Amino acid sequence: MNNAQESTEVLILTTTYAVEGSIALLPGSRLTDYVRQSGEFIAVTNVKVSDLKGNELFNSPFLDIGKSHIVIISPLSSVQKKSKN
């Protein structure tokens, strides 16, 4: 059995932060299934954390994000960001 994982870029919103990074999914897996099957935390790599106004606060190679704090999680490829004008 092949357990190779692929990196999926995601946007995670909490009540305070916007987090962009990557999570490891098995090929063909859905993000929803990953979230449901994970424990209390979601492991995110190559992380950029911003406030909700878009001001970048810090970067980190790894963060565990508590699922109880997540308001929205989406594949980054599905998100259309508004330009700052």
Q: Topology of this structure?
A:
Blueprint lengths: L5 E8 L3 E9 L5 H7 L3 E11 L4 E11 L5 E4 L10
Structural overview:
The chain is mainly beta and 85 residues long. 12% of the residues are buried. 8% of the residues lie in helices and 51% in strands. A five-stranded antiparallel β-sheet has the order 4-3-2-1-5, with helices on one face. The longest helix has 7 residues, at 31-37. It has one helix and five strands, in the order E-E-H-E-E-E.
Whole-number count of domains: 1
Number of helices: 1
Give me the side-by-side strand order of the main sheet: 4-3-2-1-5
CATH architecture: Roll
What percentage of amino acids are in beta strands?
A: over 45%
- Cα end-to-end separation: 50 Å
Q: What is the count of β-strands?
A: 5
Order of helices and strands: EEHEEE
Largest sheet: 5 strands, antiparallel
Radius of gyration: 13 Å
Low-confidence stretches: none
Q: Look at the structure and give the mean pLDDT.
A: 90
Query: At the first level of CATH, what is the class?
Result: Mainly Beta
Shape label: globular
**How much helix, percentage-wise, in residues?**
under 10%
The SS-based structural class is mainly beta
CATH topology group? SH3 type barrels
Entry keywords:
85 residues; mainly beta; SH3 type barrels; 5-stranded antiparallel sheet; 5 strands; globular
Entry summary:
The chain has 1 helix and 5 strands; from the N terminus they run E-E-H-E-E-E.
